[in-house]
Write a structure and sequence with these properties.
Elements lengths: L1 E5 L4 E5 L3 E7 L5 E8 L51 E5 L9 E9 L18 E10 L4 E10 L4 E10 L5 E13 L5 E6 L7 E6 L3 E7 L8 E8 L10 E7 L4 E7 L5 E7 L6 E3 L3 E4 L2 E7 L2 H16 L13 E3 L1 H4 L5 H13 L4 E4 L27 H12 L2 E6 L3 E3 L3 H5 L18 E3 L5 H17 L4 E4 L21 H19 L4 E4 L9 H4 L4 E3 L6 H11 L8 E6 L12 H8 L3 E5 L7 H23 L1 E6 L6 E7 L5 E8 L9 E3 L9 E4 L6 E3 H7 L1 E3 L12 E9 L1
Parallel strand pairs: 21-22, 21-30, 22-23, 23-26, 26-27, 27-28, 28-29, 29-30
Antiparallel strand pairs: 1-2, 2-3, 3-4, 5-10, 6-7, 7-8, 8-9, 9-19, 9-20, 10-17, 10-18, 11-12, 11-14, 13-16, 14-15, 15-20, 16-17, 24-25, 31-32, 32-33, 33-38, 34-37, 35-36, 35-38
Helix pairs in contact: 3-4, 6-7, 9-10
This protein binds (2R,3S,4R,5S)-2-(hydroxymethyl)piperidine-3,4,5-triol.
GO molecular function: alpha-galactosidase activity
Organism: Clostridium chromiireducens
Pfam family, one: Glyco_hydro_36C
Length: 735
Amino acid sequence: MAIKFNKKSKEFHLYNSSISYIIKILDNNQLGNLYYGKRIHHKESFSYLFEGGMRPLAAYVFEDDTNFSLQHTRQEYPSYGTTDFRYPAFEIKQRNGSRITNFEFEAYNIFKGKKKLEKLPATYVENEIEAQTLEIILYDKLIKTRLLLSYTIYEALPIITRNAKFLHEGKEEIILTKAMSCSLDLPDYDYEMVHLAGAWSRERHVKTKKLEQGIQSIYSLRGTSSAEHNPFIALKRPYTTEFQGEVYGFSLVYSGNFLGEVLVDTHSTSRIMLGIHPNMFEWILHENESFQTPEVVMAYSDEGLNGMSKAYHKLYRTRLARGYWRDKSRPILINNWEATTFDFNEEIILNIAKTAKDLGIELFVLDDGWFGERNNDKAGLGDWYVNTKKLPDGIVGLSKKIEEMGMKFGLWFEPEMVNKDSNLYRNHPDWIIHTPNRSASHCRNQYILDFSRKEVVDYIYEAMSKVLREASISYVKWDMNRYMTECYSVAKTAENQGKVMHEYVLNVYSLYEKLTSEFPYILFESCSSGGARFDPGILYYAPQGWTSDNTDAVERMKIQYGTSFVYPISSMGAHVSEVPNQQVIRTTPLETRANVAYFGAFGYELDLNNLSKKERALVKKQVEFMKEKRELIQKGTFYRLVSPLENNINSWMVVSEDKCEALVGYYKILNTANDGFKRIKLHGLDSNKKYNINDNKQNVFFGDELMYAGIPVKQEDFCSKDGDFTSVLYYLKEA
Ligand code: DGJ
């Protein structure tokens, strides 16, 4: 790995064994991009990759020159309004009304390791030899503002991270109306855009479309990263598959409004941008103030989509997620939400917990409804003290009783919300986000607390930390169940209203930071009506997240499949729930429900007392199985084999780092009549190792047989011999 600067050619070359990224200081002293992709040899100069020339209707930078126009130049962080007519990476409104800027190269800095980002989550290094960083400083002398562009390249991964920072020194204030985290111009547009779209209960389904001239974009203006779009775009070649071909990934480490777009211009280049959505964003900078954008993580693979995902999984599992639980085996949990919703008392809870304990489950999670007057979704949010009518001995007493059973205890919070029918709202009606003299819309009868105000966040911190300090709590589920409307903070002046949505996110992060630092042994699981804030920003604080409220095994295959494009399976909360399933009223075999949920942070979400004796015995076996395999599942390399979005089959697998063991899931969604023979070809094994399958000494195969000839899938191997939604697991161990 190296970052080289060539003084003569004015080029920076960032490279490791798999990728190269080349930046050039252009003739106008701004920054251009010459190349990003598979590693190429280092040379003194790559200036032949700069393409200029005359074109009708182009505007040119220099007098008596018809060669240099930004319109045709691939740039690093472009502006609008000089010679480039495409959408810019940033925009600065100045006091005289102008939005024209000129950021020219001033200096650079190359160092080992990677800096932290101010108030923002970001990937990190544990040792400075793991990565190298290039900072390029540009200066606009008229407005006296510096722009710092940072690039970090990891030694062992095909990953470059980027961010931008504006530092204003001028006496006259400036207003940032757009500040994307990265912009990248690629020389052609022969790509398909892959992204993850959906809605509540069908989050992160994979969507693919061919790029066309014009703009294709994804976004959230909902205040969270959202269930509708995830802050991630990949550009793949049309021929790229899961295992072959080029793909570029762009993933934003942020949990609020975002915009991701690919602009294909008339001369067939593609501009990819990702960052905070410029709508609703306006950041005023007075003298000596600065603005830091979130980070974008770019991954390149010429080994298909799985190659890209593998890089993201490794980085996000080990250098984005943090803390005590990052590498620890995750406890197998039972959550009472689908079993009871709000309707429970201590006896009901202890009854569920006791059976769970008998079957080997390690953690009981008490969901919504334990506090204030929270007997339905109309009241109580914001009142973070126990409802003693339901739990007479309080959370302290209940957690003690559960711990005495030999289980750990976890608790649900929704810190950012309030019901009007709550003491918190009655005492502080102006603490909600609302626009003066306009009505405030509700969602699920709740309102959003104005987290852009420090006193509000401090109050919630006190209330939550009191509960966490007093009781024996090992896990917190942090929920967030609505999107933001009528966004305005009554505590801010008019000129600062454009800061509210971003400051809200920053303060969600600061509360997470405070609580995770004070309670380092608590496992935090994020949630947002299922997966409406499942993003890399939150993963920095909570190493696992509730993937979706949809717990149906078939629906979950699609959701977990799409989520795995970016996120490691260790981050995906996945539970076995009752049948008929509460979301889609489908009945799937208990085996299949577990066979899907094993490929995630595993748990149960039902009253096990309602199962038959035989089913409970099966649950016990499942729990034992997961305890044996969870290290492999959590830390192994995950591969998608067959997509449930395009097939009647879903298949995926996970291989240990030493390639000595693997677990394969194979799922047949609908039963078929008189079907042909099926084989599943595995991936990532050692060709020369021999593996036995499902502990059967007769079933011994070389890795190359399993990868190239495949496993013949036999009807008799399936968990249910007939009917729909059947599945089979293959556990491979080196023989
Ligand atoms: C939405 C979550 O996704 C559910 O799991 C549950 O916690 C409910 N909120 C509780 O209100």
